[in-house]
Design brief:
334 residues, alpha/beta, Rossmann fold, four-stranded mixed sheet, 16 strands, 35% helix, binds N,N-dimethyl-L-histidine
Length: 334
């Protein structure tokens, strides 16, 4: 089935075009709403959470293995070197709450070092991702209670009650994913986390400020995996929303914004063009961008300051020999 739509041409007149009717799945409606809102703004910008469909998650797993992308291997090496210390700090019979059911590689290191952990609560917006994480861990940690929680941890959420034998609740937020929040969002996250845990601690992965060249290559890898990850957002819109982004007319751009202390990722329009998303039409000028991600970098001091402002109390910091990454212990007082 087709319908006729009017598109404003580059010459400024209206062209009727035939568009195939496309039915959008119910699950894709929040993406549709966010994409349309993003493209309607004078400065186009969208939340990076929409990167992570199945293909985006697979591309992100490949990013984590890239020689230029140091955060994952550095954080894993910190965990491996200091698992004993961290486990001692956490203590026996702990409950571990992880934000985002990631690759499980990191939490496995932590769980394996702990003395009789009681429960593991991975929180993720994708139930499918959570189920596969839980199944994979069940086999390895037989006595561990795994209680996945489907929730958007960027919004309000609540934890199930702890069992009476749980001694301490520790939230684990690795990967420097906190850097993908704006600083006000990061503060809000810390406040919500403290409120939801009641008392306990947060073990937080933070990518530290470093030479811009290192940061630049981490987000501009030679194999083009990060570019594919960025462009997958438009492919996802074509697949799920029936949008008509012409991928070859957009380019990946990532650069360090020094005053804001963040990597910015954008998709740059190569020409003046019109794009349809759902029933709405949007115009890109040549060189205009869709801002797809911020990845804020912190010093230990700046993250400690933010944590203190949110009522958390800084404890030990575990780092790597090059001081590229930090794992920060933040106490959450009762
Ligand atoms: C998930 N997050 C911490 C990654 C980062 O480094 O900001 C996402 C990413 N974007 C491009 N490469 C990796």
């Amino acid at each position: 089935m087709t319908r006729v739509e009017e598109i404003k041409s580059s010459a400024g007149y209206i062209e009727p075009v035939q568009v195939a009717a496309f039915s959008i799945a119910h699950d894709a409606l929040p993406f549709l709403a966010d994409m349309q809102a993003a493209l309607a703004q004078p400065v186009k910008s969208i939340s990076p959470k929409h990167f992570y469909d199945a293909r985006g998650s697979a591309l992100f797993d490949r990013i984590c293995e890239l020689p230029e992308y140091y955060p994952t291997r550095t954080e894993v090496s910190i965990l491996q070197s200091h698992a004993g210390d961290i486990a001692q700090r956490i203590g026996p019979h702990a409950e571990i709450i992880e934000f985002g059911a990631g690759s499980l590689r990191k939490v496995r290191i932590l769980l394996a070092a702990l003395d009789a952990p009681e429960r593991y609560v991975p929180i993720d917006i994708s139930g499918e991702h959570l189920r596969s994480s839980a199944d994979a861990l069940h086999a390895e940690f037989a006595g561990l209670d795994i209680a996945p929680l489907v929730a958007d941890y960027t919004q309000e959420w609540a934890l199930p009650a702890t069992s009476t034998s749980t001694r301490r609740r520790v939230a684990f937020f690795p990967g420097s994913t906190i850097g993908n929040f704006t600083p006000p969002e990061a503060r809000q996250f810390l406040i919500r986390c403290a409120r939801a845990l009641g008392a306990g601690a947060l073990l937080l992965g933070v990518d530290r400020i470093k030479h811009p060249d290192i940061l630049h290559s981490a987000y501009n890898d030679a194999q083009g995996v990060t570019a594919a990850f960025n462009l997958n957002l438009l492919e996802r819109a074509n697949r799920e929303l029936g949008a008509n982004f012409k991928l070859h007319q957009f380019a990946h751009s990532a650069f360090y914004n020094a005053p804001q202390q963040r990597i910015e990722m954008h998709l740059v329009s190569a020409c003046h063009q019109n794009v349809r998303v759902g029933d709405a039409l949007f115009c890109f000028e040549e060189g205009e961008t869709l801002h797809t991600e911020n990845s804020h970098k912190y010093t230990i001091d700046s993250m400690h300051r933010m944590a203190r402002d949110c009522g958390l109390v800084p404890g030990p910091v575990w780092t790597d020999p090059l001081h590229a990454f930090g794992l920060l212990w933040l106490d959450i007082p009762a």
